[in-house]
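Example 474, ligand GDP-alpha-D-glucose.
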Amino acid sequence: MAHDLVIVANRLPVDRVAGPDGKMGWRASPGGLVSAIEPVMRAGDGVWIGWPGGTEQHLEPFDIDGLHLVPMSMTPEEIENHYEGMSNGTLWPLYHDVVAKPEFHREWWHEYVEVNRRFAEKAAELAAPNATVWVHDYQMQMVPQLLRELRPDLRIGFYLHIPFPPAELFQQLPWRRQILEGILGADLVGFQLPGAAQNFVRLVRQRVGHKTHRDLVYLPDGRTVRAAAFPISIDATGFDDLARSEIVARRAQEIREALGNPKKIFLGIDRLDYTKGIYARLRSFGELIRDGELDVDEAVFVQVAVPSREQVEQYRLLRDEIDRLVGRLNGDLGRIGKPLISYLHSSYPREEMAALYRAADIMVVTPYRDGMNLVAKEYVACRVDEDGALVLSEFAGAADELRQAWLVNPYDIDGMKAALLSACRADEHELTKRMRAMRKQITQHDVKAWAESFMTELDAEREHTKTVRSADRS
Ligand code: GDG
């Protein structure tokens, strides 16, 4: 069956689970992207193509919660080379300011292109004439071009969820030109921030030699491609409702009690990733306790580190480093029944996340580089009493919008310590003033608005190209 809207992403929003009868089935794993795209998908009879995780082969398309999903299977070699290798060993660190050293391997690259080709072929097969295809993220950068070659009639959008690096870093990539040309298969290319869009246009001019003007790229075949910022957001009302619910309010109270009702609860929630700056933030907090600025009887740091990419070497090393640091800080500075860091290496249901957000006085988000960081926005959405403080890295995309946070440079430990203390000591009036402004921002710019603005621009861009081309012919 042909569809008017096709979403292409590395992952499908589902997990494979065994049912009560032992039969394997699917469970929806709701996330920001699904809630953003769901309304657009329903309106356009959409279908979502992606990998469901694991190595099962020959999976059949299925529907879940009314969404049409098409699973793409991956072989162990493809997972190793495309996903763990090129995506998470090369592109992820390169695009995040080389916080870790990217590795370049030709076999990774070849598999990356082949997987992208398979995804593009599937999209070409499922898209109706003149349909819209929305391709997501750094694992799929070759899809727009490969798809355009197969189906020139399609309207193609590409959105990058992570930063797009400055030319000086991107230049390292042996396949820099191919990737730029891959993305240029789209009509509209979306980034989190204007700076990323500018990096992209500048690189296209320098490396591919196309003419550009402001946010437009002019291709020799007459197409124009627009590169612009569409900062992603969250389902703000959904989080607000959840945080207000009886069950979440009660659970937040329980969490505070379980921690011994400290005066101040600091909270970090991140995928266990070296870009997130977990080590530096815990060290800063540890030093504040050591220096006597904070007291273990009065303050505790809850750090949730969600397991992530555990097959990749750098992630295993990071886990060991954090384990050691937490052990050392608790061993050196904690007291009986009073660890200063409550460390949880686990993932939690959405309700528990909301309860943690509600329980925490100071949310600490300190990535070295982050496309947006939704956790920061979710914390704000859950502060229904308009209190609580957000300490936020300048290098998270979210810092552009959440100006009333305590903004920090995560490389500056003393600066971070000062910000943690200042946030901890702020009075109620100050907290409310800042939180109110941030809540207004995320309510007015929620994920629905994000998806709609991207789709509207994509329509407009395609129309523009059509008009220019017919004017050329006449
Ligand atoms: C990438 C970019 C960009 C986390 N743990 C649990 C859980 N989560 C949810 C959070 C949040 C999401 O995962 C994490 O999003 P972030 O934005 O914080 O970070 P990345 O995973 O690195 O996301 C990032 C994002 O894409 C979107 O474009 O903002 O910059 O790196 O929604 O709530 N959810 C549940 N249990 C957990 O344990 N249910």
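Summary: The radius of gyration is 23 Å.
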